[in-house]
Each structure stands twice: as C-alpha cells, then as structure tokens.
Amino acid sequence: MVIAIHGGAGTILRSSMTDELQAQYEQGLNDALEAGYTILKSGGSSLDAVEQAVARLEDFPLFNAGKGSVFNNAGKHEMDASIMNGKDLSAGAVSGVNGIRNPIFLARAVMDHSEHVLLSGKGAEAFAAQQNIATASEDYFYNEFRYQQWQEALKEDRVQMDHSDKKFGTVGAVAMDKTGNLAAATSTGGMTNKKFGRVGDSPLIGAGTYANNHTCAVSCTGHGELFIRAVVAYDISCLMEYKGLSLSEACAIVVHDKLKKIGGEGGLVAVDSKGHIEMPFNSEGMYRASIDADGKKTIKIYKD
Ligand code: ASP
Hints:
globular, four-stranded antiparallel sheet, Glutamine Phosphoribosylpyrophosphate, subunit 1, domain 1, binds aspartic acid, nine-stranded mixed sheet, alpha+beta
C-alpha cells in the first residue's frame, strides 16, 4: 500500500512563506494523505483512495482546485478533473465545469456511469445533475486572495498560473492498494484569467493523469500547455513499458530533460507497480506528501 499526493508545483520560496501559512499547507496535505491512506488500510481500492484524497484537497481553500479554484476571465470558476483505474485502463474526466463542489466526484461518475471518458462544460453539468453530484454556489468558491489575483491579471490582460510568482496549485493523487492495483486522479481550477474555454493537461488522460497496473500511476502539475505537448503521464508509462526503464529513470528523463527542453515547468507524483514512489519537479518547489510501503510518511514543499 502506498499513496502520494501533490498540491501543485511552482516558484514556492521560503522567503515568501510564513510559518503559519506553511503549517496550514502541511495540515491540508496531511489530511488528504490520511484520508486516502485510511481507505487503503481498510482494504479499499486505490481508485477510492485517490478520489477521496483529491476531494479533500479540493475542499482545502489554499489549493487551486474545487473550493480554492482561480477565477477565469469572466470572473467564474471553470474546473477540470480526471481519474484513471490502472487495473482495466478505465477513465473519467470533466473539463470547464462550473458550480460543481467536487469535480473529482463528477469525473468518477463519468467513468462509472457513462459510456464516455471526457465530458465538458454545460453537458458535463447536466450529467452531474442527473447523477446527483453536489453543486455549490458562487459564494462557496469566492476567495478574496484569488479575486485580487484575477483583478491584477485582468488589468494586464495576461493569463497566469495560480500565483503571480508562478505556483501551479493543481492537486492530484496516485496510489497502490493491497491487491497491487494502481490509480491516479488530478483536479484543477486551471489558470487565472483563462479565456476561450482554455483547457490544460489535468483532465486529459495521458497528459496530466495516467494509470496502468503494468507500469505506473501518474498525476501532474505544471504549465498545462507544455505538459499536453509532452504527453507527460503516458510518456513515463511508455518509457517503462517499451524501454524497460525504472520509474525513477523515466521520471528523470521526462521532468528534468524532455519537459525542461521545451520550457515546461512543473512536476508530478508517481507510483509504480512495485510500490516505488517518485515526486520529481523542475520548479522551485512542489507541495507533496506520501506514505511509502514501509508506512513512512513524508510531507515536503521545497527542494531538500
Ligand atoms: N496543469 C494545470 C493547468 O495547466 C495547472 C496546474 O498544474 O496548476 O491547468
């Protein structure tokens, strides 16, 4: 049993962090990690574990997903999420949904109760209503800090990552359960001031999320456009499957070489079929936490 989660990567500097804020982030990571691990310990599936861990991260206002989602150009929250089961490669995803309390629950419903993989916008919201997925009002998603971020981005007409100092606050989780099944899940509010229905890597199976019991489970965070172009999550799986690389070798090539060459800043969490965990990133920091096969817990923000 192992689990690893992230709350986004980027220019996260010690100098711009207070002890109090750091403690809050660590608490948010710890709660989500424990929520997922509790499911694994009681014999639950990796799929349920990553779904619940991501739902907790979505409920935590400091991360850019669910409740803490950034504002788009129209002053709304357009969220993306995806989930994948490594056992049979089934997957579900949603993009550009508004007013859904936990987009990861909707992604799971797409996987379990529709014949599709990816639903978008109004159609996805109609499907949510049919599936009795909880909604929330604009007030629930309102956050003064995010609002000011958006106002600044609006003034300069720029599309920006979660923080003006380039933090990608997307959340995600990967896990391996008692039976060796792998799963991955990712959820995001995307980029501040995004327009034209912009969609990043997070809801795209193979780019931001991928799971295959034969190789690994991966959840990404970073500059979505570059992660789509590098097909990051699937590339890591392919390097393992076709080239016989280890998870750590595959992650090093993709995150520190391939992505870097095209200017793709960010990172990911991954677990392989033997339960090895990797949490690489090429940015200053990444909110991340894990519990390994020996039960050892790690919670980190910066490079060591
Ligand atoms: N990858 C996300 C996106 O481009 C952003 C993030 O990781 O925070 O939508």
